[in-house]
Amino acid sequence: MGGKDNSILHLADIVFASMALSQVVLVGLFFMLYYRRQLLGQLLVLFSVCLTAYIIVNAGIFDHLTHADLLFGSIATATPAILWIIAYYLFADRNSVHGAIWWLISGYMLLRILGLVFFDPQHLYAAYLLGAGYVVPQLAMLGFALHAVYLAFAGYEHDLLEERRPIRVAFVVIMGIQLALILVNGLSTTLGSFIGHERLQPLIPNWFFSLSILMSMTGVMLAIFRLRGGSFDLLDRLREDGKVEFARVGADKDKHLVERVQQAMLEGRFYAKPGLTIAELADKVSLQQYQLRGLINNRMRYRNFSQYTNEFRIKDACERLLGTDDPISSIALDVGFTSLSSFHRAFRDSHAMTPREYRIAARAAQGPVSLA
Fold this sequence. Notes:
Elements: H1 2-34, H2 39-59, H3 66-77, H4 79-91, H5 99-118, H6 126-154, H7 165-195, H8 206-226, H9 234-238, H10 255-266, H11 278-285, H12 289-299, H13 305-323, H14 328-334, H15 340-351, H16 355-365
Helix pairs in contact: 1-2, 1-8, 2-3, 2-4, 3-5, 4-6, 5-6, 6-7, 7-8, 13-15
């Protein structure tokens, strides 16, 4: 019976892996044909390639072909990193990835490739080789995937782009399920490698992984046909500068609403309230949250609520840096930031220098620093 059961499981692995592969390839081809000139399309094509390799490795199709297994294993290793890059550009509202991240991605991929090439369970230092070539890269991959989910989840409340908000929800749900499966299986197989492959097998069968990927990709395809035509240029539009000067809003038909919101933010330094939410501002100006989100995004051209509130806070901070000798930490907290690190990050995004550098330059010039 054991041999028959194994044959059925192997057949299920092949069938579901083939179905998942066909769906992933279909998604990749779709984006390559119709959205290859847009950043989101390019990243999703690359993600489809990596996910294809992951399915092949997970199904054990090339277990006995060393070079092919090494090739697909190396490509599959990049899957969480590509997923993180997609989430970073899509949800974090930043235009570039820090150089240290690229080094981290390169480092864990190199360790994993070396582990695939040189790991020998009979080696005297097999446990150390396993740790360096498998456990460390696996933790890095899990970290990238978890942070990708965090990026989608963390900014939901402040997101002003209506077309991006449902994408955040779907991303968190789908990736949350995938991560739970990977975490459970990864822990079991890692422990199994230490205490003996025969004594502890993966808790989740390969066919179930393939089925979950198949369902996820089916959901992606359904979402494709429901999204509006311009939705896939979202990343390219997010990479453009989303801010406009307040004076440019004057000609807008919603000028009176814009002025009401602007006045509410300035009244009593409302913008300086720590943890200010769009719900609180909506209550103050007697608007529905969706109306306020649309107004700030479509009329004022801000992508998220934090970007909008930080505009007021940074302007106030600049005046304080120039006109007082108050400590920078005190200024940061007084204008509404909850930590010095978040103040420094927002200030750098706005002025491309630290608050201290701004204070020195502004005082030397005896006036606000020009960003031209």
